[in-house]
Amino acid sequence: MEQKISKEELDERVMILRKFKLLLEQQRKKFQEYLRVLEKQETKITEEDTDALVAHSELETQIVQGIGALQKVIVPMQELYNKSGAAFYNPSEAYPVSQIQADLSRLQSQVLAQNEKNRLLLKDRLGQLKKQISDFRNPYRSLNSIYAQKSFPSGTRIQVEV
Prior knowledge:
By secondary structure, the chain is an all-alpha fold. It has one domain. It has helices at 7-47, 50-84, 86-89, 91-135.
């Protein structure tokens, strides 16, 4: 049984489909960018480059905020997409959307795995730093003044010549 729809409804479905695809592609791009940042961050952790690590963390925060903003738009758009029947009207148009959604799921799992890997590297590095700090011994701890040294005998006479 074939369903007839008006030109306006068809145009609306096409517009919804295109907008939804565009938003999903933007989100995929953001996730790819986030994954690249996480991979670079991993190298900076192993190289112990703290300045670059701080910069990567700030960039990561901005990207996550961008992903969150896109997600706020995508969720209602996906509901509209599903309600309008755009996914079921033309399967050839709907296929790229499902492909993009599959790519997004794959990217999300890669991002989570890389994020966990970085978290473990940072935790390990933090443990190493804590051990270094606890092993550090101040040689001047027992002295009242850093200039007072117990190992050298002090002189008792001074000779002054004019």
